[in-house]
Amino acid sequence: MDSPPENAAKGLKPTISVYTDYLSNRISSYFPAASYSNFLSRISNFYRGSSGTSKRRRRKTSLPLPFPSSAESSTAVCEASRTVGVLEDIMECIFLNMHYIQKNLEYWQSKAQGSNAKRAYFMICERGPYAFFNGTTQLLSDCVGEGSGMQHTYCLASSYISERINFLSSLRYHLATFLAQIYMKVDKVGEELVKDSEKSLSSLLVDMNDLFLKLEASIGHFHAVRQQSSSVDESYSFPLIFEKLPEVNQEGSQWTDCETRDAINLIYQNVDRLNTYLAAIVTIHRKPRRVTRYWIPYTCGIVGISICSLWLLRHSSLVGSSDIDNWIREAKESTVSFWNDHVEQPLISIRDDLFYTFRKRQKGAMEPEEVQLTADSLHRMLQAFTEQTKGEKAPPNATDQEMLEIVMMRYEKELMHPIQNLFSGELSRALLIQVQKLKLDIEEAMLELDQILRANEINFAILAALPAFFLSLIVIMLVRAWFKQDKKAEGRGRVARIQRRLLIVEVERKIMQLESCKEQGQEKDVQCMLGLALYYLDRLYCAVEGHARATGEWISLRQDIIDLAKPDLQTAHKLRITSRMERVYDCLLPLPKTQ
């Protein structure tokens, strides 16, 4: 190749990432095409010029290339690290773009599975204000004119959704085929690349260039495919055209170092063009943005906030009103009162009870010694009354209840002549004994009540702190849910485990479909199914790495995933591996159901 050394050196610089290309296409919709293209090219040149010899930024983890396991760290692979880096960048590009396509495809497939009413609602209410007014106007005119407005809307929705499903499915098909061809090529020449790196590098780069040209023939015409009845509101501004290796290099048996750098530079240019092209065409067929889908609730929220703002303005000090200041002061006082009554004082009470309850256990409104004194006094009074009434000494083992029966019998007899016996009999003495018995009963009841209250002091304090406890629990749950974000397969909850197990299901399904295509002799479909299986294996690889490393299962699980990616491994063996993965590895086991 005759390119100057400066251009060759630039070829070694890292390229802009996939998401940067996607973002650039998003920004380009707000600027004129010509001015934005110049602006972006300046940024790209600055990026590559200032990168020096830094490596291309890659994802944190991804499915490894199928090099021989015994040579992963050998010097031969290190010598071919430039080509390995190119291959990893190509696979990363395909994985990221396939993931973006898959997310949009799943969205449109979920819409296609909905009812006609839901699809019509999407066509009218979830595509923005412009589509809302146009759809409403068209619906009303059809209802007034032909009387079949809803049926026409149903047909439009079905056509709109199916067109995007067909386009994204076709694009995913070709990218999966391209991914499988690269993976199979690397798997085939892996041994040769280790044994004779210089000779294998040139042939591998030529093969990569041929695969890019095949991909161009497959999807390069998508910019021109535009049916007259298409519901796509935008057109593709550029075709997909890859750079080609010069014929002189393709025929050479051994390349110079400069020619190798130029070929790598050309591959990186093709990767950049593929990223830019895919970002542009997928953006046109992607799902609507969240702000577009929920523009009606957002609009209602903005209107509500505006009304609330005007209402607050009327009560603010800006218009001479002190209502807001009063409300703030009342809210502050209520908060301080709530804190004191339900947080501070209960906690202080619990602390005091825990540290001082046992020390103060014998200090209450009624002590056991006082009750015992009253009981002893009553016993002596009963004993003296019994001895005086019977004229003999009371038995030493007589109980208070027996002596009290004697008092009550004497009391009943004295009541026959109450006035006489009140002054000269035993009536007054019997009354005083009953008063002493009543005093003893009251003191015993007070002692039991005091003990009950002491035993429940901590319970009352905890009960007073319950409102603050539940409020804190709700706040903690909300904060935990916010930080955890347990919706993706990388999470730690039940939903994340379900997502990881579903990835294994998808891998099994693609393996079985691949075997079915082999039996039917459908070579292109075989490559597509292999590419889709590699895509789901890459997602599974990224999702389980952190969990498997934490449990010490990563070495074994990683090898199982690599074995599943091998093109030549028998289907029965692959299915046994997936079955073992679902049963053995902790990060893939289902959580036990809560009773």
From TrEMBL:
The chain crosses the membrane at residues 460-483. InterPro entries: NCA2-like. One of its GO terms (cellular component) is mitochondrial membrane. Residues 428-455 form a coiled coil. It is a multi-pass membrane protein. Residues 49-71 are annotated as: Disordered. This is Protein DGS1, mitochondrial. PANTHER family: NUCLEAR CONTROL OF ATPASE PROTEIN 2. It comes from Solanum stoloniferum. It is found in: Mitochondrion membrane. Keywords: Coiled coil, Membrane, Mitochondrion, Transmembrane, Transmembrane helix. The keyword Membrane applies.
